[in-house]
């Protein structure tokens, strides 16, 4: 059965929609240039109602230790999702914080998948995310999709998740084609950048449950 992470939540109402709809993970972004960036106080409030069986994922871009420590404490994080973070830094973060690590791999071509293999001993899961355009402010959350056939026949080095450009209309096909164990969405359940929509969250989670 495929489960779902709803990423970039920033209000109690949309966290509630994710929980009601059966999300396995909720994502909190700690990256100031993002429209989904959370203060530590806001993260504390949002994490409060999340039950133990739902994973709280902190999303970071090459974070330093003080950001990690504050965010982990405020968001009571279970998982650190790391974008644009060098492998040796991932290893150090894992050793220091002892939480599950999801290494985000930016994918546009088959060659990009080679990066995933380098994380075999370093991370707990690979998040295959679409590569955002050259010069983009964000490494994710831009509704960009990659060619899912790149994953055909690929021997995944680790447990994994699929991300990038998913929405209620295409997630069924994405799951059927890739057999992803977890799907991750952000802008596909928004009405504007950073503005999550409860009905889109419900529709996405219903589509995942049906797939
Ligand atoms: O979403 C952000 O603003 C963000 C900022 C910095 C690093 C990563 C970010 N998002 C990562 C995610 O996990 C998104 O859910 C993923 O990229 C998919 O986004 P979308 O294509 O919009 O569904």
From TrEMBL:
Family of this protein: Belongs to the TrpF family.
All residue ranges annotated as the N-(5'phosphoribosyl) anthranilate isomerase (PRAI) domain in the record: 4-205
EC id: 5.3.1.24
Originating species: Sphingomonas qomolangmaensis
Reactions mediated catalytically: N-(5-phospho-beta-D-ribosyl)anthranilate = 1-(2-carboxyphenylamino)-1-deoxy-D-ribulose 5-phosphate
Pfam families found in the cross-reference section: PRAI
GO molecular function list: phosphoribosylanthranilate isomerase activity
NCBIfam families listed in its UniProt record: PRK01222.1-1
Name recorded for this polypeptide: N-(5'-phosphoribosyl)anthranilate isomerase
Keywords annotated in UniProt: Amino-acid biosynthesis, Aromatic amino acid biosynthesis, Isomerase, Tryptophan biosynthesis
CDD domains xref list: PRAI (cd00405)
Pathway assigned to this chain's UniProt record: Amino-acid biosynthesis; L-tryptophan biosynthesis; L-tryptophan from chorismate: step 3/5
Gene3D superfamilies: Aldolase class I
Gene expressing this chain: trpF
């Amino acid at each position: 059965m495929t489960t779902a992470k709803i990423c970039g939540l920033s209000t109690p109402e949309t966290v509630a929609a994710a929980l009601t709809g059966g999300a396995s993970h909720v994502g909190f972004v700690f990256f100031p240039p993002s429209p989904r960036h959370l203060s530590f106080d806001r993260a504390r409030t949002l994490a409060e109602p999340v039950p133990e069986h739902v994973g709280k994922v902190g999303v970071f871009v090459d974070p330093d230790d003080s950001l990690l420590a504050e965010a982990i404490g405020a968001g009571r994080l279970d998982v650190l999702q790391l974008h644009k973070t060098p492998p040796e830094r991932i290893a150090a973060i894992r050793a220091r914080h002892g939480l599950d690590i999801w290494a985000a791999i930016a994918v546009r071509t088959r060659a990009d998948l080679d990066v995933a293999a380098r994380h075999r001993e370093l991370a707990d899961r690979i998040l295959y995310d679409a590569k955002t355009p050259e010069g983009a402010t964000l490494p994710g959350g831009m509704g960009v999709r990659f060619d899912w056939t790149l994953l055909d026949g690929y021997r995944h080095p680790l447990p994994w998740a699929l991300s990038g450009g998913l929405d209620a209309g295409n997630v069924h096909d994405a799951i059927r084609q890739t057999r992803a164990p977890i799907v991750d969405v952000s802008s596909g359940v928004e009405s504007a950048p950073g503005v999550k929509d409860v009905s889109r969250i419900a529709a996405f989670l219903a589509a995942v449950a049906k797939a």
